[in-house]
């Protein structure tokens, strides 16, 4: 479903929340729940190591307004987080988290189905202050209940270094031919044109979405696949995969051996002209290099595309949820209730330069505002992440390593498209 990142002002009152009747009496970090006067420490887990300082500053605001509740934020490397979280939520250790950052769509479902998370409609206030499309990403597929407060609606586009573009006399490209010319000029100027780290295959669909959504036609194509009119062997989708291979000469040498963090460093160090990525990169880039002049543009339509303009794609990054094994669900619910307020949403957007799904929040960062304005002009989904991960195997389980094999030269675009089709057909029901 297309949706705009719309914002409308609302005010909320935080209320005292009762313990959930199903909450066990063990689990979570040390401390006593906030029913009496005793202090509580809430352990919060996140995969956003880059934003740890920012989150701590935001949580300081909550702690000041809620004396007696302390937030202990613990962040983990994103590539290791899923396994760590699985152990923390399903293990028998009492050192697990109270509140967890969970990924959206199909990634939250195993924890819901396993009874590891608490449905929050009856214990968290203010959910009607959240973009409904954002809430959908944290619904239980079987019971339709809400299990998390979404924290960011991310957008994917091409970032570029304005200083390098000015040095080489380059403008933002508006056609595919101009985009190729920009890549050539960057390479001739001694820069890596496109900073990509293909060693971490989870990043490759983001790169694909930024570079090639126009090749397959965006959301219209997704509708056609769900209706049975098309599948992933459609020439447009095959072309979108081939775009990745065709642009490989403009990526770092031996790109499959380059880590995501290496690609970030290449761009931050101003050795690369462009970086295809999500809005979640802005704060990290500018914090690491305050002199970096960031710009953005939607990559122009691939030749032969049915789309007339480049697009920015969007998705829900994840949500904060409550561990069912936590003994501190009253305090946890109070924290999540605060996360639905305009105060939190505005702090989050201002401090992380990421768009909050809380209604009433606006982007003060000029670059983020440009991203949101571009997205809202023609909102398109980060399609394989949002729409084709609901069965086994999820499209991304095939596509992510498949793109890596493509860049290694071990798989053709047509063969990868067939693999995705065969995998998704095992569970996708069409009319």
UniProtKB/TrEMBL annotation:
Give start-end ranges for the coiled-coil region(s): none
**Keywords assigned:** Signal, Transport
Tell me the leader sequence span: 1-23
Specify whether Manganese is a keyword of the entry.
no
What parts of the sequence cross the membrane? none
Give the family per the record. Belongs to the bacterial solute-binding protein 1 family.
Protein known as: Extracellular solute-binding protein
């Amino acid at each position: 479903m297309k949706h705009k990142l719309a914002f409308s002002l609302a005010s909320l009152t935080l209320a005292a929340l009762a313990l959930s009747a199903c909450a066990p009496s063990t689990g979570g970090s040390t401390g006593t729940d906030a029913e009496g006067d005793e202090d509580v420490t809430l352990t919060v887990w996140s995969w956003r190591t880059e934003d740890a300082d920012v989150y701590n500053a935001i949580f300081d605001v909550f702690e000041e307004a809620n004396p007696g509740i302390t937030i202990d934020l613990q962040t983990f490397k994103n590539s290791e987080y899923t396994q760590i979280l699985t152990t923390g939520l399903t293990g028998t250790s009492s050192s697990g988290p109270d509140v967890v950052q969970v990924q959206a769509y199909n990634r939250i479902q195993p924890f819901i189905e396993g009874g590891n998370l608490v449905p929050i409609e009856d214990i968290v206030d203010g959910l009607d202050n959240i973009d409904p499309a954002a809430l959908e990403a944290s619904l239980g597929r079987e019971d339709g209940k809400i299990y998390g407060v979404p924290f960011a609606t991310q957008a994917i586009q091409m970032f570029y270094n304005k200083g390098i573009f000015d040095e080489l006399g380059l403008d933002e490209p508006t056609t595919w031919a101009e985009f190729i010319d920009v890549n050539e000029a960057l390479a001739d100027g001694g820069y890596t044109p496109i900073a990509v780290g293909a060693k971490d295959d989870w990043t490759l669909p983001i790169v694909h979405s930024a570079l090639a959504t126009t090749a397959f036609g965006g959301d219209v194509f997704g509708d056609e696949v769900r209706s049975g009119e098309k599948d992933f062997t459609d020439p447009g989708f095959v072309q979108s995969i081939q775009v990745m291979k065709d642009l490989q000469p403009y990526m770092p040498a031996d790109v499959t051996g380059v880590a995501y963090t290496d690609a970030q460093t290449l761009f931050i160090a101003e050795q690369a002209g462009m970086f295809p990525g999500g809005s979640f990169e802005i704060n990290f880039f500018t914090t690491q290099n305050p002199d970096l002049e960031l710009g953005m543009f939607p990559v122009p339509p691939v030749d032969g595309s049915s789309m007339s303009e480049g697009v920015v794609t969007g998705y829900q990054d994840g949500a904060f949820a409550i561990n069912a094994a936590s003994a501190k669900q009253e305090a946890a619910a109070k924290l999540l209730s605060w996360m639905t307020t305009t105060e939190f949403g505005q702090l989050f957007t201002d401090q992380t330069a990421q768009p909050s799904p809380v209604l009433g929040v606006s982007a003060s960062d000029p670059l983020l505002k440009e991203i949101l304005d571009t997205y809202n002009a023609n909102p398109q989904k980060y399609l394989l992440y949002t729409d084709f991960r609901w069965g086994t195997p999820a499209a991304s389980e095939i596509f992510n390593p498949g793109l890596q094999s493509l860049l290694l030269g071990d798989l053709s675009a047509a063969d990868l498209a067939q693999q995705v089709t065969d995998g998704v057909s095992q569970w996708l029901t069409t009319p």
